[in-house]
Amino acid sequence: MEQMVTCICCPVGCRMTVTLNESGEFVSVTGNTCARGANYARQECTAPERMITAVIPVSGSPVPLSVKTEKPVPKALIFEIMKEIRALNVPLPVSIGQVVCPNVLNTGVNIIATRGLS
Amino acid sequence: MIFQDKVDLIIVGAGPAGLAAAIAARESGVSSLLVLERENEPGGILRQCIHNGFGLHRFSEELTGPEYAWRDIVRARELDIPILCSTTVLSVSKDRKVSFVSKEAGFRSVQAGAVILAMGCRERPRGSLCTPGTRCAGIYSAGTAQRFVNLEGWMPGKRVVILGSGDIGLIMARRMKLQGAEVLACVEIMPYSSGLNRNIVQCLEDYRIPLYLEHTVTNIVGRDRLEKVTISRVDSNRRPIPGTEKDFDCDTLLLSCGLIPENELTRGIGVELSAATSGAVVTEKLETSVPGIFACGNVLHVHDLVDYVSEESFAAGHAAAAYLKAGAAAASAAPENRIHVTDGPGVRGTVPQLIDPDPEADIRLMFRPSGVFRNSTAVVKSGETILMKKKAMIFTPGEMVSLSLPAARLADVVNGSIELSIERN
Known about the structure:
The structure holds two protein chains of two kinds. Chain A is α+β, with helices and mostly antiparallel strands. Chain A folds into two domains: 2-47; 53-113, CPE0013-like fold. Chain A contains two helices and nine strands; from the N terminus they run E-E-E-H-E-E-E-E-H-E-E. In chain A, a hairpin with a 5-residue loop joins strand 2 and strand 3 (26-30). By secondary structure, chain B is an alpha/beta fold. Chain B folds into three domains: 1-123 and 259-332, FAD/NAD(P)-binding domain, CATH 3.50.50; 125-257, 3-Layer(bba) Sandwich (FAD/NAD(P)-binding domain); 333-425, Immunoglobulin-like. In chain B, helix 1 (16-27) packs parallel to helix 3, helix 1 (16-27) runs parallel beside helix 8 (306-326) and helix 5 (167-178) runs parallel beside helix 6. The longest helix of chain B has 21 residues, at 306-326. Chain B starts with 5 loop residues before the first strand and ends with a strand.
C-alpha cells in the first residue's frame, strides 16, 4: 500500500511516497531529500501525532482560558480530546502551566493552561 | 506609577518587539524608561495566537503565543520595567516629545531622550481588496475572528469560507473547525499558498478543508447577515473566468490577505518610509531617518517568526541604549557616507537600507524573495565584487531570508552601495 505525504520539516515541502505492508507497517519512503523528511514520513504514516491547543470559557472571567496538550497526542483522537477539553470546568485562579486535566483519555498526556487568569 | 516630564527612553508598544527592546535597553543600563501599550495587558498579538510553534529558534522548544509572551513579561517584571497599559500614543515629534492618553495618567506629554517604535502591524482590510457584493455582517479579517474566539470567547459564525491562504487564515480554519464550526473552503488567488507547508497540512488537510488555488471571491450575497459567497477560477492575469463560478452557503467570510506595518505615528514624525516594506528606512542600528528614533519588529517589516522579531528588537534596545550613552554628538557616520543597500532581481524589502561604512558588528540583512526560486543563490554584491553568497534548495515569498554580512567585507564596497539579488544556479 502506498501513501502520499507532504513534508513539513522545511519550506521545500517534498512530496514523499511511503510504502506500507498489509499490516500497515513501514516498508520504504521515496521522494524525500533528507533524513528528517524520511523520519517524518514514517511517523506520519504509522503513528501520526499532533499538538492540540484550544480555549475554554471560565466562569467569572471575561477572558477565556487557553490550554494545550503538554505533548503531541495521536491525531485520531483530536476530536475526542476536544470534547474532553470543552467539558472542563476550571475554577479561578489559574496559573500558567497548571494541569487542568491530567492524563486526557488515558494518553498519558496532561492538558495544561498556557496563560494565567485571576 | 509616578510620571515624569522627562524619560531617557520611551518604547511604543508592549508586544514581543517592545518587550524585547525594553529588556535589552534595561540590561544595557538604561535606568529611566517607559513602555506604552494600547491594550490592557502586555503581550501584543501573541496573546491571541494560542496555537503552538513559537520560540523554536530562541528557546529550542515549541511554545504557544501566550507562553512566549509570558517569558518576556516575567523578565520585564524582574527588571522592574514600567509598562503603562490602556494607553494610546497620539503623536511623537521630531525632537522626541511623546504625547499620549491613558486611563491611568490622562493626557501627558513626555520628553524622551530616545524613542523605539514597536507598534507591530495590522491586517489588510476589506476596503483595500475590492471585494464585490453586498456589505452584510459576517465578514471579518482572520485576526479579528482570532481575537473574538481566543480572547473574547465567542464564535463569529458557524459556516465559514476563508479568502487568502496566509498563515493566519490557515490557523483560523483549524481553530474554527476545532471550536465547532464548519469550514467549507480556503480560497487563494495565487497558484501557491503563502502559508507554511506545515499549516497547509495540519490546518487544512488534517480536517479535509479544500484549498482552491487560482480562485477568488467574485460575489458576496446577504441582506443583514452573509448568506452566500461565490468563487471563480482566475486566469494567469488573476482575472475571474466566466462560467467557473461555485457557490458556498455560509454565514462567515474571513479575510487573510496580508499584513501592513502600522506606521501612522511614524508618518506623523516625518520619518522616511520604504515603499517596499511599508516601514521606516533604517540603518544597521535600526535608527530611522530621525536621529534618536528607532524602529523594530513588524512595524519595521512584517516578519514570519516572532523569534526574529525578538532578535531584531534586542538589537534596537541595545542601539538605543548606546545612543543615549554616547549622546547625539557621537552619532554614527555622517549620512552622506552611509552605504545604500538596494533590492536587485528576486529581492524585495531589504532591511536595513543603510549601513555605517565602519560598523561595530556583522550586519544582519533580511529580505523577502519576490517569487519562488528553486536551487538558487542569494548574492550580496558591490559593483562586480561578490561580498557573500547563500545557496538554498528553495526561496519562497513566505519565508524571509536572513544573511549575516561580516563587517570586514564592507572594506570591498565600491561607490557606497551594495545590491542583493537571487540568482538561479
